[in-house]
Amino acid sequence: MRTRGTDSVRRRKAVASGVALAVAAGLLTPITIASLAQAATQLSVDSLGLQSAAGSLTDGICESTDGTCTLRAAIEESNALDAAPGEVAIGVDPDFAGGNIAITTATRMRTTALSGANGAVAGDASGDGSGAVYEVTAPVIIDLEHRITIHPAGAGDLAVAPFHLNGPDITIRAVDDVWAGETSFYIGPKAKRVTLDDLDVRTLTYYPERFFVVRGGAEEITVSNSTISGFASSEREWNWGVVEGTSASFPVKGLTVTGNTYLASDAAGACNGSTAAGCTSTPVEAYEQHITELEFTDNVAPNINRSSASDARGLDLRYATVGTLKVGGNTFSAPYYRARQAVIDLAYANLDSFEIIGNDFTGMSGNGDVPDHAAAIMLPTDKRIGTGGKIADNEFLAMGTMNTQAVYWDGLEPTDSATNLAASRVSVIDNHFDGFSTSASRSGIRMLQTGVVEIARNTFGSRSGSQTNTVLEEFSGNGSVAATLVSNVNASANAKLNTWWPTARSSANVQTSPITAIECTVPLEVAPPADEANTTDYTAGRYPGVPVELDVYWTQGNDAEVYIGRFDVAADKRQILQVALPMPGDELLETNSGVGPVDPLSGAVSGALRVQTMEPLPSSASSQYSRVAVIDGNCRPALTIAQGTTQNEETHARDLHFTLTSSMQLDTSTVTSDDFVVEARRTTSEGLDGVAAGISTIDAGRLDPRIVSVSEIAGSAGTQFDVVVRVDDTAQATVTIGAGTVAIPAGLANISAATTGNERATDNVVTFVNPITAQPSRFTLVTGDERGKNFTYMLAAGAPAPTEQLKFTTSISQPAGTPKISLSAPSPVIDGGASQTTAIVVTAAAGDAEAGTKTTISATVATGDSNYDGLLVPDVTPYLYATDPVIDIAKRAFIDVGDSSSVDRIEATGTPAPRDSRLTDGQPVCFVYTVTNTSADDWVTVLRDIQVNDSDERLGNAGLIGSVPSLESGDSVKLFSCASLIPGDTTADGPIAESDETP
Fold first, then answer.
1. Can you tell me the distance from the alpha carbon of 38 to that of 357, in angstroms, rounded to the nearest whole number?
2. pTM of the full predicted structure?
3. Which terminus has fewer CB within 10 Å in the chain: N or C?
C-alpha cells in the first residue's frame, strides 16, 4: 500500500510558520516580554552623563549628583528598590533627544572582577576582570527606545563590560550599540528570567569580544529579536554568544536565542582594529560547557566563517553537556568550511535529546574537508544520544559542489557487527540535500558505528554525488566509503542493511527497455536483496525481513530529487508496486523546483525510479539507496464522469450532481459548462431512493436539459469538479465530455473522452422526478352543478420542502360553445414549507354539453426556490356532462360491528343504524357504500375510474373511500370505511363514461 501522508511531504516555504506553531504548542519556550507602561515606578533618563544617584535610593525618584536622571542613577535606584517583577521600569524622558553614553572605566558601578560559574570571582581568564559600567541586580525593565547608545567615545579597546546582569526578572530592550572592549552583556550566575530583546549592536572594530556571556547558575535566559554584528572571534573565547557553565553542578539552566539577525559580510571585508566589516563569529559557543536547555530558533546568520579564518560556527557545542537542544527555523546562508568547522558542531558532546528541524543551510562552500569533521551538522563523536534526536525538514544546499558530508555521525557502537541493531533513537528524515558528497569518498548522509538510525524520505538534488553505475550505491564494503547519497559505512550502522531493488536493471547495470507508465502509474517490479538474480548484495550485511517498507524516489539521472511515497510489502518475493507519478504542480515536486517525471508541455514521462528499504519495528534499520530503473510513457489527463458521490439514482431534488475526475490537476479556467454535453430523455420513475414509482414525463419536448454550474471540489487540488444539471420535468439526464476539452495548467488536454462506470452508482445517468402532481388529475364535471369538483396541486412524498411560496398561474382550454368552466382559485399557492395548495373547486356553468367533452386546466409555477421554479405542472382534465352519467351511491351505517374486515363481515356482524337515529360522538361506526350504475336507455354507459369520496376526510384515505375501475350498466359494487366520527355526506367522483355509442 502506498502512503503519502504529511510526514512524506516537505514544504520548505512553510518551515518558519511550522516553527511558530511549535512555539504556540509549547514545544519551544514561549517568550514573554514585559511592558514598560505596566510598571508602577517609572524612571526616565534625561542625561547622557555617568553620575551616580544622589539622595534617597528608595523613594522611586531618579536623581543623580548633578540633578539629572542618568542611566546609572536609575539603575542604582532600581537595585535599591528591589521591587517585584514588572514594578520598576527605566525609560527615556519624552523630551530628551538621546545620544551616546560615552562610558569609561572611571565610572564603573562594579570595579571588581565579575562573578564566575560557581559564585566565585572570575579573573582575567574570562575576559571580564575589569568589572562593569552598569550592574543590574534587581527586577527591572530597561527600555531606551532605540534613542540611547552605550559605548566608549572611541573605537579602542576599553577593558570593561557595559552591563553586568546578575539578578532576577531583568529585561533590557531597545538599547543599541552597547559595546566596549569586553562583553556587552555579562549575565551572571544569579540571573534568572533575564531577557535581551530588540537590540541593535554593531561594533566598529574587533576589540569588543563578546555580545553576551551567560555564566553557570543563570536560569531562563532569552536573547531575542536583535541585530548583532562585529565583535572579535576566537574558537574558544571570543564569540557573539558564550556559555560558561563550566561545572555540572552549576550549569546554565535554560538559554533561548530566537529571532535574531547576525550580520557578517562575505570575504571582501576585514576584521581588525580599524574595521569590523569582515568580522564573523559564533552565535552560541559552549565548548566543554554545561547547559540544561538550549533553544536556537528563527535566527538569520549569513556568511558564518566566510570573511576570515575565524574558526566560527553556527553553534559550537563540542564536548558540551546539553540536556535538551532545539534548533529550528534558522537560516544559515553561505557558511564556509575551513578544514573542519561544522555549522552545527556537536562533536564529542553529551546530548540527552535534540531537534534540528526546519532550518535552511544554503550557499555552503569551503576550501577543504576532513571526513571525520566536515559536515553541515556534526553529531556527537564517539557518543550515544540519551533519549532521542531528530534532524528533519531541513534544506542543505551547497554552492556548486561540496566534497563533504551534510550530516555525519561517528558513534560509539562496536564496529563490524551486522547483528548490532542497537536503537540510536536518532532519525534523519524529510530533508533535502543538493551539492554534497561529490568526492569519491563522501556521502550526503554518512553513518559510522551509530546503531540503527532512521534515514527516510530525504531527497537529493541533481548536483549530489552518486555513482554512474547506481548498482554500486546499494552497498559498499564494510568500512569503505564511496560517493553515495546515504552511506552506512560499517556493519554497526543500520547493520549495513541490504536493499530491495528494481528488477528492470540487472546487477550488471543493464536495463533493456524503460518501464512504461500506464495512466501516469508505473508498474515497478521490485525484488528482495536475496533474490537469485541479484549478484551484488552484501552477504555480510543484514537482509531485511518482512513486512518491510519501501520508499520510492524519482530522479532525472542518478540521484533522488523527488520522494514519491511509501509502499508496504508483506511477502519476501518479487512483486509489482503501482507507483503513481506526481503531476506538474504536485507539492512533492517542491524539493526539485517543481521539476518531476512528467513534462508539463508534452506529458512525456522521463527519468528513473529507485527505492530505499525501511525495516519497521523492532529493527527500524534503513538501507542505502537502490539502483535506478528508467521509466517512460505519457501523462496527458484521463477523465471519468459519474454521478456525484452523494447523488441518488432517482431524486426530487432539482440539482443533479455529476463528478468529473481527472488523473491530473486541471487548469480550472479550461473546465467550463461549454465543455459538457447533457441529454435528457422521457422516463417513468421506478421508486428508487424513496421516490414514488410511476411518475412519468409530462412533455419530452420541454425538458430543457442544461448545465447550471461547474465548480472545483474543495480539497481536490484541481482533479475533481462538481457538474450541476437541471431539467424541467421527470427525465433521465446523461452528461458526457469529449476529447481535447480540458487541460492541465501546462496546456495538455485530455487525450480521449471521459469514461464512466458500468454500475448504476458509478454511471453518468441520474433520474430527476418532477415532484409537482395534481390530485385528482381527471374527473367528470356536470354542468350547472354548483358543488363542482375539487382538485389540489401537491408535492410528492419525499420532495424537498419549498423555501419560498410556489405561485401557480392557471389557464383553461375548452371547446367553443361549451358551458364556461371556472376555478375558485385561479392563482393557487403552496406556501413555503407546505406540501399542497388548498382545494381548488372547478364548476361549469349550466348548459348542454356533449357527454364526456374533454377540457384542460393548465398551469405554470414560479418561485424564488430554484428547486421548483419553472417546473412543468401536470394538466388537470375535467370531462363535461350536461346530466350526471347516473351513478347512485347509497351509504349505510352499521354499529356494534364484530368483524370489520370486509363488507360481508360488517353486514353479518353489525347492526344497521336506524334512519334518523342519533349516534353519539366518537361511537365506532362502519359505513357501507353501495355504488350502482343506473344508466339506461340512450345513456347506457360503462362507468370507468370511479372515485368514491366522503366529505369527512377522516374516512378512508383523507376522504377517498376507494376506486372502481369499471362498472357496467345495472351493476353495483360495495365499499366500506370504519371510524369513530360524525357521519358526513358522500359524493361520487368522476367516472368517465364509455359505451358503444357516443355518450
1. 36
2. 0.69
3. N
